[in-house]
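Might you be able to consider the sequence and fold that I enclose below?
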Amino acid sequence: HNIRAVLCHSCNQVDKENNKSGVSGIRWTEERKRWTYFKTINKKRHQKRFKYFIQAVIYKKEFEENNNIT
């Protein structure tokens, strides 16, 4: 078995269940009062903050489409 794939899948499932936004990869950062999109690709963490939730959702969709992430 590919342990990395299993761990990543399990992390994503936890994120979906515990995430207040209801969208995997987007969370509210209380200390900054911003929505944060985050994604790790090839061990590099990509992160961007937004004032509005809808901005984070649109950015996530475009980022993942442009980087062929499913």
